């Protein structure tokens, strides 16, 4: 068998549901509590992180869609667990609300944080990968460290994506990457910019996220 075919088969078998690229992404549903979608057997790739770090923007970028998910420079845009069907139901991307938005009302803050923790701890969902997104400039905050603790405790596989890399120069970027890696335990840390990612950078991140 030609080596290229072998490589293609290997890649297919080593990714979540054999996904090597995204051909379609469709909004399926937004939930705020228990729902059959949580345990329907379709692998879930989940995007979590502090409010405004760019979770929804990363989902748009990876699916190569400008407006699949609504983004806003006003924190607190996403308020539900939003499920997107990838490649006709082969997987879900799940865009979560953000935690740690200081200016939200205490009630709203508590509501969103409870929803995120409920999903990760008690909903019955077993995500195939949790993508913890940070603002690269801000680095890993106490909220993120708490999130990592929850992910480790519940044995959810996770990787860290330092987003908004376009806001840093080369020197700042290397220093921040070292600091984030040191604080992120054994997790893979990838840098990214949802704003400026090239198709190649998009494909590289996608491969990391979908590695099985
Ligand atoms: N410069 C830059 N801005 C970005 C990047 N990614 C997202 N943004 C901007 O950051 C803001 C927040 O983006 P969202 O994708 O809505 O962030 P979110 O994490 O989903 O926010 P919540 O749903 O409120 O938790 C928007 O103004 C985006 O345009 C990036 O890589 N670089
Ligand atoms: Mg969002």
Write the layout of secondary structure elements.
Elements: H1 3-13, E1 25-31, E2 44-49, H2 55-62, E3 81-86, E4 91-95, H3 106-121, E5 129-135, H4 142-153, E6 158-163, H5 170-183, E7 189-191, H6 199-210
Parallel strand pairs: 2-4, 2-5, 5-6, 6-7
Antiparallel strand pairs: 1-3, 3-4
Magnesium ion binds next to helix 2.
Overview of this protein structure:
The protein is of the alpha/beta class. The protein has one domain: 3-Layer(aba) Sandwich (Rossmann fold), CATH 3.40.50. It contains six helices and seven strands, in the order αββαββαβαβαβα. A seven-stranded mixed sheet has the order 1-3-4-2-5-6-7, with helices on both faces. The chain is globular, with a radius of gyration of 17 Å. The mean pLDDT is 92.
């Amino acid at each position: 068998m030609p080596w290229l075919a072998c490589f293609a088969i290997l890649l297919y078998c080593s990714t979540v549901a054999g996904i090597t690229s995204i051909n379609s992404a469709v909004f399926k549903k937004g939930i705020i509590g228990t729902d059959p979608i949580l345990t329907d057997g379709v692998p879930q790739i989940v995007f979590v992180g502090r409010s405004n770090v760019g979770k929804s923007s990363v989902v748009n970028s990876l699916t190569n869609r400008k407006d699949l998910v609504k983004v806003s420079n006003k924190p607190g845009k996403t308020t539900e667990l939003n499920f997107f069907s990838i490649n006709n139901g082969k997987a879900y991307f799940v865009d979560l609300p953000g935690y740690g938005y200081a200016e939200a009302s205490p009630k709203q803050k508590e509501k969103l944080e409870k929803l995120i923790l409920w999903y990760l701890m008690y909903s019955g969902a077993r995500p195939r990968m949790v993508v913890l997104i940070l603002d690269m400039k801000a680095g890993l905050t106490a909220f993120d460290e708490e999130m990592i603790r929850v992910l480790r405790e519940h044995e959810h596989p996770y990787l860290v994506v330092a987003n908004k890399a376009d806001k840093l120069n080369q020197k700042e970027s290397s220093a921040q990457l070292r600091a984030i890696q040191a604080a992120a335990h054994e997790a893979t840390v990838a840098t990214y910019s949802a704003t400026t990612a090239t198709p190649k950078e998009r494909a590289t991140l996608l491969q990391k996220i979908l590695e099985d």
